Structure formats: structure tokens, C-alpha cells
Description:
The protein is an alpha+beta fold. It is built from 6 helices and 8 strands; from the N terminus they run αααααβββββββαβ.
Amino acid sequence: MKRALAAIVLSAVVLTSAAASADDSVEAKTHFNRGVKLYNLGHFQEAIPEFEKAYDLDPAPILLFNIAQSHRQNGNKERALFFYRRYLEQEPNADKRADVEQRMKELAQSLQQENEQKQKPPTEVTPPPPSPGAPRTEPTPAVPPPAVVTTPTPATPAGEPAWQVALGIGPAFIGFSGKDISAPVLLGFQLGGSYQFLHGPSELRAGLTVVFASLGYTNVNTGAKQTSSLWGGLLTADYAYRVAASLRLGAGVGLGVVWWDSLAAGNPFTVAGVAASGPIPMPTLALALHADYLITPHLFVSLTPELVLSETTSAGLSDSVSSVHRFDLSLGVGYLF
């Protein structure tokens, strides 16, 4: 139960953090819109700090591209080159990668030519000053080519996968309230799918998980080995934070129903060992922590300790076993798409 309390406290902290992250995303969107407006008006220098504030609150890679665009339009080629590189590091599979690399090549060549020009001795002859009364000719300023600023919502960077499926398997340690029954270590399975609503360092998902475990027991009448099963479905909500590019840590909660099936006559769980007429539904709460390591941008492995609490409902079972608690330790693999 200490583990359960610890998991509940951690879940509360994580959900509070998720609310704060949502506020940051709203403020980031405000700064982003200001930056776009200033950029479109040609105020490139003023647009840069707005994009930087948006990135500080919600570091979407596309903001690095917009900062690079602003520096390039403002004539700061070195800073533009710096932020183009950072954009490609954060978004290696960007759709506009070829265009960005071409622009970086042009900037690098221009900087090299400027450095070579500085090192050359002056060879140009300064023209004489115009004679008095002659009309003065002013050089025509060069007009930079227009550039389109991409305007996605910072909270959902382009190309970010939203769906996730994952399969987990591992040992499950089960216990019963109301009756002292020894049970073997179970082998639990989980298959889940979820959709990501919040992107960035903070990730918020909702989905559905199907669970299954096989529970063996000894028939108290015959001494024979028999097997029952625990299976069901849970609606899940999960918050995770990317502590590194390939590592995220998170916590989740699940609510649903688990059915206890195949309780034959002579089982040690019901009153007087009577057989259950069918699967017994048990309202269930699950609290989980997880650590995910991304092998590729789409494939990951995960480690998930989880506490599962189920309340019995059938009279013949509840009078003997009031609740079932499990601690599962699953090792899984998942795919983002």
C-alpha cells in the first residue's frame, strides 16, 4: 500500500505539471503570433525575441527555423547559419531539409567570400566628389526576396507522430484482501493504443489498454491444478516528459473493468469454493510509471511498474475476497506513427 500511496502522490504531481505545461503552450502561441506579425511587417529584429520567448516556453523545432529566417532577413548570416543547424539537429526528418541545406550552403559561401574580400588589399579607386550643382545619385537599396514563415501551432510541430501502440509483458505479483491466499507469480500481458494531444517536451496522451493474466490455483476438493484468468480493458491518460531526445519519463492512470474468469467448484477464492456462473466483473484502477527509450524516431522500448487495484462485486466472491491488488513489472516495445 506504501507503493500505491507513492504512485498516487506522483500522479498528482505529474498532472499538476501537465496543467502548467498547457498554460506555457498558450503563452508560447501568443509570442509566436507576435513574431509572425512583426516578421510579415519587415521588423525582423523585433520578431527574433518573440520567437525566442515562444521557444523557451515550448521548444518546437520549427521555431528555430523561424529564428534563422529572421536573422537571415536581418543580414546576420552567422546567426542564421547557427539556427539553421540547430533546426536540422532537432528535426532531422524535416520536409524542408533540402531547402534548408541549400540555404545554409549559400550563406556559408557568402561568408567565405566576405572573409576573402576583407583579406584582399584595396584595389578600387574612389570616385571624385560630384561637382557643385550636379544632381546627387543615391544607390538603390537591394530588396531581399520574400520568405514564407511557417505558422503551425507550437504545441504540435509538423511531422510529429500522434498515435502510439505498445505491447508489454512481465511478472505480476498478486494479493487478496479479506482472505489469506498464497498465489504464484503471474505472467501479465498488456496491449495498448493512445493518441497524443500535447507535443513537445511535455506529452499528454489518452487511449485504451487491454490486459490479461493467467492465475493458477490448487483445487481444494481434488488437489488438482487449475487455471483462472484475469482480463479486461482500461481507459488511460498518461503524461510524459522528454528529459533527453531519446528518453522520456512519465506516469499514467487507468480506469476500467477486469473480469475474473474460470472459477470452478473447489476454488480457494469464493465462499465454500462454489463455482462462479461466469466471468465476474471487477471495477479497476491502475496507476503506472514508465521509462521509454527511443531506438529510432518511431520505435521504442519501455519499462513500466504498475499497481492494479480491483474491487470484487459478486456476493460469493466479495464475502471471501473483498479486493484484488497486483503489482506488475512490464517490459515492452512500442511504435509511434
